[in-house]
Design goal:
This protein has 90 residues and is α+β, with helices and mostly antiparallel strands. Helices cover 22% and strands 38% of the residues. The protein has a domain of 62 residues.
Length: 90
Amino acid sequence: MSYDLIFWKQGPGSGSDPASLYSNLMDGSVVDGLVTVPAEAMISDLTRAFPGAVREPNGADDWPVWESASGPAMLEVSWTDQYLMANCRT
């Protein structure tokens, strides 16, 4: 089983509905009214929360990856200036 968790921050008065925001972000669009997410700080927090997480190459970028030592669970994190997405698999 897998699922994605996506995090963004809306600015004051942006008023867009979450489903539209999600769809636009996944299409690669820049969405007006979103605040830049502190991705590096969030990734640092995640790597502390998931011991053994490492940053691995992902094309021209990298992404944090964590694999459970006790079972088939994995977490991969990708981001842009507007969102952070965690892909969780078991």
